[in-house]
Amino acid sequence: MTKKIIGIDLGGTSVKLAMISQEGEILEKWSIKTNVLDNGTHIVPDIISSIKDKLDLYQLTASDFIGIGMGSPGKVDAQAKTVVGAYNLGWSELQEVGKAFKEAFDLPFFIGNDANVAALGEQWKGAGQGNQNVVMFTLGTGVGGGIVVNGQLVTGEGGAAGEIGHLTVDTQYMTACTCGKKGCLEAVASATGIVNLTHRFSDNYEGESPIKKDIDNGDEVTSKAIFDAAKTGDLFANMVVDKFVDYLALAVSHIANTLSPSHIVIGGGVSAAGEFLREKIAQQALAYTFPQIRQTCQIVLAELGNDAGVIGAAQLVNTSR
Amino acid sequence: MTKKIIGIDLGGTSVKLAMISQEGEILEKWSIKTNVLDNGTHIVPDIISSIKDKLDLYQLTASDFIGIGMGSPGKVDAQAKTVVGAYNLGWSELQEVGKAFKEAFDLPFFIGNDANVAALGEQWKGAGQGNQNVVMFTLGTGVGGGIVVNGQLVTGEGGAAGEIGHLTVDTQYMTACTCGKKGCLEAVASATGIVNLTHRFSDNYEGESPIKKDIDNGDEVTSKAIFDAAKTGDLFANMVVDKFVDYLALAVSHIANTLSPSHIVIGGGVSAAGEFLREKIAQQALAYTFPQIRQTCQIVLAELGNDAGVIGAAQLVNTSR
Known about the structure:
The structure is a homodimer.
Chain A: E1 4-10, E2 14-21, E3 26-33, H1 37-40, H2 43-57, E4 65-72, E5 75-77, E6 82-84, H3 97-104, E7 109-113, H4 114-125, E8 134-139, E9 143-149, E10 152-153, H5 186-189, H6 191-202, H7 210-216, H8 223-231, H9 235-259, E11 263-267, H10 274-286, H11 291-294, E12 298-301, H12 308-320
Parallel strand pairs in A: 1-4, 4-7, 8-11, 11-12
Antiparallel strand pairs in A: 1-2, 2-3, 5-6, 8-9, 9-10
Helix pairs in contact in A: 4-12, 6-9, 8-9, 9-10
Family (chains A, B): Belongs to the ROK (NagC/XylR) family.
Enzyme class (chains A, B): transferase
Keywords (chains A, B): ATP-binding, Kinase, Nucleotide-binding, Transferase
């Protein structure tokens, strides 16, 4: 029987785990709650214990696996196998994650940033269809992403590559971003960014719009409500969506023009707006993209959903060892 | 004796050739004229014959080398080892360059786009100091470049990666570019781009300036004259240079935020403006760059000059075989 891989996707509320074949098929998946108490000191022991239980249950040993891969929030040092600054886990101090796994299992262990690792999953078995050059934009509360070049995750100097959400796309209004700089994609094209845009446009909009009415009343407006209103023809919501798309298309073109990937994958919660959003981005990105590259670069929706993390973690083992 | 590499830098007026050690030391260099007559059909035979003469002269054979590398203008297919659309060579039709070298020498042959290959040279033995993640901007008549990630040249789908000159940075004026799209870096931050900016600013400038006077008289203004005037304190020239720098810094930040390279190298004819230009770009790029990446990414001037092409061609052999 061919050896398997253990993939781990560490999140702020749950840890997703899976046994995965070397070809990327999920053979078994499960999850445990993330216990962030006591500065997150229980997290790694909980994961290790859960994996040991699962191996016992199936009467498996380390020799049945080629390695363990993991995606983690925070700043990940892939060489040192450490994590720092994952505040949603209680990990403000440096965590020696690799050391703990090395002591627990006689197996190679590899770790990467969660958004990067999810991109590797989509590249390998999702919307990227195994192509060697694939980039993913994850549109959620913030904007994350990951870059795969020549089949390898790009981590860059200091592990900070793939900060797609901090591409400066708004040079006119220079909207403030939580990172400390201004004009970031994240400040105008995330779930919170689109709400920023709604406020920018509402001051000067004279027409009727249920969305504008909610803003004027001080009610909370969600990105989903804005996209739903745009789909039903609300002119104000469409103004907002068009600007959101324009910023995103500009960022997509920067990736296309520099890296010429075969696929740019749009994922994350905001991408639930689906084909309506994808088509608008693809159309607008044409104007910003080098003619030759327009013909080879497809803008596609993510396909793996929550499984992208564990599948990417498995591929991290395949591509790193 | 350790084996050597032959590096070839094919240009529109001359072909530079060199024998290079596997460590990147130029052992012998020479050049021949590029004969673009008869649709450039003499070029490859001339290069092959020149290499054979040199081997005879030093009583060397194929067994003294590990391979031949080449940088070429035009659209290069690294797999098929062909070139098409190198109009300055007379090569509008597909050229089977690899096939000709395979017939002439019993040696591995590798080919890449000339701007990409020069970037590989600077990454390996020049301003990149052998670091694994280095990107080069070549500011000449146009803007070219090359991207090295994990020590490998990035070619992307269809070989079109590294089109740094066609990053859309001017979303306000959307200056027309020769590529057919608008707002490209090349249209505002090359030797011709800076002249475009001079015309944009001269209409609304009221003060005294020798540069503005030349424009109003319809005289030709060069990028060198603009930089020289800026250095001596000409206010109009400094307005132009500041805008030029702002566009370039934005493009530099896009590369920094996505790839987090250790070095971004500024080369090409316009970079003769030297430290005056480099410092301005580095300063302005800070405002557009993710805080963590500011600390790890250096903006540096190219160091190899005309040797970057042959040295990069040698490294293409090292990294491809």
